[in-house]
Each structure stands twice: as structure tokens, then as C-alpha cells.
Amino acid sequence: MSIRISQIDKRYGQTRALEPIDLDIHDGELIGLLGPSGSGKTTLLRIVAGLEQADGGSIHFGDRDVTRVHVRDRRIGFVFQHYALFRHMTVFDNVAFGLTAMPRSRRPSSGEIRSRVMQLLEMVRLQDFARRFPAQLSGGQQQRVSLARALALKPDVLLLDEPFGALDAKVRQELRRWLRHLHEELHFTSLFVTHDQEEALELSDRVVVMSNGRVEQIATPDTLYRHPANQFVFEFLGDVNRLEGDVEAEVLTCGDARVAVPGVENGRQELLLRPHEIRLGEQPDACAHLPVSVTAVVPVGAEVRLELEADWLGEPWLATISHAEFERLDVKRGKRLFAQPSRLHRFDTPRPQTLAPLATS
Amino acid sequence: MIRIGDAPRVRRLLIGTALTLTALFLLLPLVAIFAQALMSGIDVYWQNLSSVYTLSAIGLTLLVAAITVPVNLVFGVFLAWLVTRFDFPGRRLLQTLIDIPFAVSPVVAGLVYLLLYGRNGWLGGWLDAHDIQIMFAWPGIVLVTLFVTCPFVARELIPLMQTQGSREEEAAVTLGASGWTIFRRVTLPNIRHALLYGVILTNARAVGEFGAVSVVAGAIRGQTNTLPLQVEQLYQDYNTVGAFTSASLLALLALLTLAAKAALEWRAARRETAT
Amino acid sequence: MIAQALMRRRERRVLPGFGLSLGISLTFVSLVLLLPLTSLVGQLSQLSWSQYWFLITDPRLLASYAVTLFGAGVAALFNAAFGLLMAWVLVRYEFPGKRLVDALMDLPFALPTAVAGITLATLYSSNGWIGRLLEPWGISVSYTWIGIALAMAFTSIPFVVRTVQPVLEDLPAEVDEAAMTLGASDGHAFRRVILPYLWPALVTGTGLAFVRSLGEFGAVIFIAGGKPYETEITSLMVFVKLQEYDYAGASAVASIVLATSLALLLAINLWQGRFIKRLHGGRG
């Protein structure tokens, strides 16, 4: 079932929670709403669910206009951040709730309900826990029950509000992968909210990045990462280092640091780069003379994170290098090195621009 | 936000029913007290109010409150400190014991005191021999009132002090503070409101106790009549206006109690939203 | 002796004042609570079992048990419904005068019972404001069980409201929302989801209201009139026996009142404990 959101807006008193928003979600798509807290992503999700009333605009599920339809008649499945399981009901009763709440005329027989619930529990791999109470389950298990409960009524769309936000990192990883599989198998249309960029990029077919009640960019994870629409999106999708200085004749100078910036006009400029876009060497090269000293070394997983400081830097830079590189350079705290940006990004121009100072070397 | 029972029809029906029932069961009796008291005009009201018997009843009632409230305040604070700051065998039992006055019918409370201090009671003979009158005199009234009101302060303090825990006090100990200083500077500011609320409740009950007091008072007019007993006596004498005159004083005190409680809660709520 | 055993563990206590507060608390509890209560035991111990049995099964007394239990039962049920309604309305809706209504809920605790008693008796007497309206319908409240239940209900109004209210306030919005997203109607969601959350508080509040009603004296006697076998409540029987200087009889009845109240209070506490344990991860 496709979802068409047009010109949806929302105010709380004087503050505007959502600017008029348009969004088309295709049948079977998995869409992530990504943004910092207060960006309006949860408000948008709740408006789609019918838990909040929009001030203007319309929402269609397929051809059905649901703008004025009460949440209980929208045929959505909703998964809450803190699961919102009914704590006085067993797992079985929780999952069966939607079916038993149907008016008598449409309600399936108790045998049918029973087999449907067991089938759902099998799907979320909790068939042995049917008679437990929610308090006897782990967080991850509770969230799976919550998902089974939401799917019991075969909803047109599945909406998830920070579904993995309350879980610890390892369980979150597992559940994400599992949800992705489930989605591929059952092919429901779903919309989920998250503030975790990794989660959004890993799960979504397309990501909607939001801030201050506005949509900043709608794109596939790949496009989003490679071609961010603006500085906000760029900064929100990962760690960012800043380089600010005066440009003259395509060279940026800042204290005793210099770097070639082909195609950049003269004047004060701000450039950005990601930690993995920094290379380190014992010597400066023709394009860059950026002396730094290492102030912290953190080996995490496949790479080593370094904190770099210099007189010409406002705030320290973060760089990630491979272990091989780390050993080759014999990096220690206090070691003086030269940074060589492999890429630099500019967002103060009408169109975002990416420069590659090392392309010539 | 949309919640269950939000539909205007449901909302109107429930609010309407609630307000009607409240008006009928709570507001109407309150109005009736003052209406009955003023039935024969304000002059008669004043006359009744300034009668010797009413004045002496007011005096005795105030005396009872003036003794029981401070005593129960001190006891309540010590008990709350004891059961929330220390763990010892019998702690639960002690907490259960002080709930007894809540559960016991006030008449039974009066009876047990009568059995103890009355003429045929355990201590009655000894008291008689030393010419000490407790039953059917004001000391008896004070004692049963102490019994009836002893849980109020502690009941307000214990849940609060339990949730607050003793971390702040422990910090004060490490800073070298003495017991009294800890209580005054650390504990008291945190429990101020609950303490005041406990005092207000104790006072309301101390002033208004009827069942227990009526057993031990003997109701000698002008000597052992508290206001509630005065209310009963005048009512039995078919002096309705007189009875409701004294009742109106007690009702006024009840309204003050409610106002004080509402003010305390309002301030607490405001402080909570401010932080 | 117990105190000594307690004091030996003193070194381990960080906070000061254990000895003092234990001393004051034990002294107060012994003198004000335990000593008088043991005098009741003492009085009863002078009776033989058959005497005791004879006293507590007096037909007039048996009738008073029935009247008291029935009145308190009706009052508690009324309060369960009324208290639930008031708690719901006060927590979930906004309307003018809400704070006043909220404050008024505590009136029965603040108003002396004797005052409540004469007021209700006057209001519902055959020429009172309400009694007058009911009379043409053949309903008399004064001197009947209805009056007793009414007075008991009045004095125990705050119990249910004030136990349910905080639980309802703490009920997360997601509970409502989860039920609605699963298609449940208002009625179904209330019965199957919200009510079970409120159930422990509702039962506790109703139980406390019942216990309080069993012991109520001042508010009831005026409207009940105290006709033997018909409108005599058990507390009044204690009082009547005392006025006849029948201390043994009064003590026997009092022991029944006391034991019933304490047993009920204990039962409420135990039940509450078990219920809460289940919701927080005990064996289902």
C-alpha cells in the first residue's frame, strides 16, 4: 500500500512543529525518518498513524483518503519505542489483542485466532514464550512481541517509532538485520523513525532527513552519503572536521597551514571533511602543508581514531586511519605529522561542491 | 494527542455525571451546614456562637489540638526517621502497628482507653487512690485523640522519605555534620511540605474526632464537651440551629484544611514543573 | 532485650539517631497503642469461651453484623464506581472548576464525622431538601439501610479517588495509543487494557473504603436512628453496651470489630503485594 503525504503541517501553539511536508512512499518501501530530536520526525510519524491531528494537508493510503479517519480505523500497525506491551497480559494475549478487539461480526473464531497468533510468534521466534508476561522477557524479546502484535491485523502500513532506541548496541544490530529480512519476506510498506544515522542508512530503501520541521533531503542511503544536499545533512550523517581560512589564488591559508583548493574563489571560506578523508604523512606534499600533532589515540575495531591538534585549528580534528598505516607511521601521542585531505566539501555555494586536492599527486 | 474517551459525546457525559454527583453528594451537604446554621438569622447565629457552652467547647477543642498535634508531630518524625533510615528486625511490624488506628473503629479506640484508665480498669484503682481523674475529663479526651491521630504525620513522611533515600544525609555525615544539623539543614527542607500536610490532617482529625471522644468524655456540659460532642448534644436536644452553628465552625475549619492542602499541592506541582 | 540486640549492630549504622528514635517510637507505640489494646485482651481473658460465644452471637448483635456488612458493602461498591469516575474525569479532562472539584473530594476526611452525620440526617429527613423530593416516590432514607449506606459512602469517598488518581496519572499515553492502533473501541480498550492497570488501586481503595465503613460511627448514627434489629450498626452496639456498663459485652463486640478490620487490612496488603510482584517479573 503506497502512502501519499501532501502539505501536512502542524503547530503546537506558537511553535511550528512541521512545515508543510510532501512525501510519497511506494508500495513495499521501507523508509527511515532521520533527524535530531525536535526535528518533527516523530510528529510526522504520529500524524500518519492518526495519533496526532495535522493542522492542514492530507494523507492517502493508496487511493483511500485517511486524513480524517480515526487511528483505530486506519489499519496501521504501530511499534512503540518502549514497546507499550500490556503488562497484565501474557505474550499470547498481547499479540491476540487486535483480533479479539474486533467487532463480533468480523472477529475470527478462537481457533483461528490461536493459530494466527502462534504463527506470528513463530515468525518472531517466540513460540515458546506465549504464556510469559512481558516483565519476564528481555527488551529485545519485548520489542519482537510488540512487532508481532502490530502485524497481527495485517496492517496496510507498519509504523515504527525509534523501534530499537531503548535496546543495547548488540541486540539493536541483530534486530535491525532481522527486521530487514522480515520486510523483504512480507513486503509491507513501512515508515520508521530514528535518530541513529547508521540505523537509517542500513535499513532504509530511502531516507528522509529532517530538521526543524523541514525535510532536508529524501534519497537512497548511497546518494545521501555521497551527495548530501546541504551542510546539515552532511554534518548529521557523520563526524565532520572544519577548515576555515583565507583563499587567494586557489590556495587556502590559515596561520602556518596551507592547502590547495582548486576552483575556489578568493575570500574567507569554510571547508569540511570527514575523518576518513584525512591521510597522514611524515612530510607535507605539494598540495597541502597542514602540520598537526597527535593528542589522542583510540584503536577501535578495524581502524584507529586519532585526535589531531594544531595552532591553526579552532577545534581538534578527528582522523581515522588503518592499522597498517598506524604502524607504518609509528603514531604515538605527541607525534608531529602532516595532514593531507583527500577530499574537501563546500556547502556555502548554491550547489554543494566536492574538491579533491590530492587528485594531482 | 488522541486518547481513549476523547470523543466529545463521551467527555460531556462523563463530566456531566461527575459534576452532578459531586454537587449532590459533596457540595450540597456543605451548603446545607451553613444554610441551617443561619436559618434563623445572623443574630441567632451570633447568640449561639457566643454562648458559654459553645465557647468552652471551642476552648477544650483547641486545648486537645494544641497538645495532640505537637506530640504526634514529634513522634511522627522520629518514627519516620527510624523506619526509613535504618533497617532492623521488626521494622515492618512497627509500620503495621501504627496503621491500627486507621483500621479500628473510633468507638473501639475509646473503649480500650476506658478499659485501661476507667474506674474498673487496670490503672483505675491506682488513679482513684491518687485522686487523678483521666476518664470523663480532658486528659482522657487528649489520650484517645492521640491514639486516633498518631498515624497521620508518619504516614505522610514515610513514603516520601523512602523514595528520597538517605544519600543526602550520608553525604552530610561525611562532611562532619551532627545529627541535629543533618535533620535541620538536609532532611527538613526536603520533607517540609509533607510534614505540614501531616500536621494539617492531624489537626483536622484532632478537632473533629467524635466516636472515640464520645466514649471517654462523659459529656458534662461546659466541662468535657468538645465541639463535635456539642454538635451531637444540641442535635439530640432538637436545637438544630444551635447544632449547625457549632457544625459550621467545624465545617469552616474543614474548608481551611482543604484550602491549605490544595495550596500545598499547587506549590509542590509548580516546583516540580520549574525544575 | 530486643533493643539491646539492635544496639549491638550500631557500629554499622552510618546515620545518627537510631537509639533516640527507636526509644521514642517504641515508648510511644507501647504507651499509646499497645497498652490500651492489651487491656482489651485482659478484659476478654476474664470470659470463658462459652460466655464469649454467647455474647457475640446475641441475635440483636447478629442483626447488627448483617446491617453493617451490607451497608459497608453497598457503600464500597458505590465508591468503586463513583471514585473511578471521578479519578478518570479529574485526570483525563479539563473543565472549569476542576481544581475546586478536586479539592472537594477530600471534604469527607476533613469534615468531622458528627457534622457529616447531622447534615446528612437533616438533608434526607422527610422534610429535608432531598428527603422531601424522595418521599413522593416512597423512598425513605432516614432510619433505613439506605441512610446507613449513604453515610458510610460519604465518609469513605476519598479512598478510591485518591488511590486510583495517581495510578491513572502515571499511565503512559502509549497504553491508550497501543490499544487504539490495534483497532480497539473505547469500551473494549477501557475494559481490557485500562481497567486492568487500575485494578490493584481500585481494589485497594475499595477495600479501604469498606474497612472504614465497617467502623464508621459518627456519620451513621444520626441518619440510622439505631432501631434494634434494623438499623443498629455494630459500632453502635459497643457504645450501647458501654452505656449499660456492660464492659464484658462491649469488649466482646469490640474484639469482633477489631479482628475483622485488621484481617481485612492484612488481606488487602497481602493481595496487593502478590499482584505487584506478578507485574514486575514474578512467576506468572
UniProtKB/TrEMBL annotation, chain B:
<keyword id="KW-0764">Sulfate transport</keyword>
<dbReference type="InterPro" id="IPR035906">
    <property type="entry name" value="MetI-like_sf"/>
</dbReference>
<comment type="function">
    <text>Part of the ABC transporter complex CysAWTP (TC 3.A.1.6.1) involved in sulfate/thiosulfate import. Probably responsible for the translocation of the substrate across the membrane.</text>
</comment>
<feature type="transmembrane region" description="Helical">
    <location>
        <begin position="55"/>
        <end position="84"/>
    </location>
</feature>
<feature type="transmembrane region" description="Helical">
    <location>
        <begin position="12"/>
        <end position="35"/>
    </location>
</feature>
<feature type="transmembrane region" description="Helical">
    <location>
        <begin position="240"/>
        <end position="264"/>
    </location>
</feature>
<dbReference type="InterPro" id="IPR005667">
    <property type="entry name" value="Sulph_transpt2"/>
</dbReference>
<dbReference type="InterPro" id="IPR000515">
    <property type="entry name" value="MetI-like"/>
</dbReference>
<dbReference type="InterPro" id="IPR011866">
    <property type="entry name" value="CysW_permease"/>
</dbReference>
<feature type="domain" description="ABC transmembrane type-1">
    <location>
        <begin position="58"/>
        <end position="262"/>
    </location>
</feature>
<feature type="transmembrane region" description="Helical">
    <location>
        <begin position="136"/>
        <end position="154"/>
    </location>
</feature>
<feature type="transmembrane region" description="Helical">
    <location>
        <begin position="96"/>
        <end position="116"/>
    </location>
</feature>
<keyword id="KW-0472">Membrane</keyword>
<keyword id="KW-0813">Transport</keyword>
<keyword id="KW-1133">Transmembrane helix</keyword>
<comment type="subunit">
    <text>The complex is composed of two ATP-binding proteins (CysA), two transmembrane proteins (CysT and CysW) and a solute-binding protein (CysP).</text>
</comment>
<keyword id="KW-0812">Transmembrane</keyword>
<dbReference type="Pfam" id="PF00528">
    <property type="entry name" value="BPD_transp_1"/>
</dbReference>
<protein>
    <submittedName>
        <fullName>Sulfate ABC transporter permease subunit CysW</fullName>
    </submittedName>
</protein>
<feature type="transmembrane region" description="Helical">
    <location>
        <begin position="194"/>
        <end position="220"/>
    </location>
</feature>
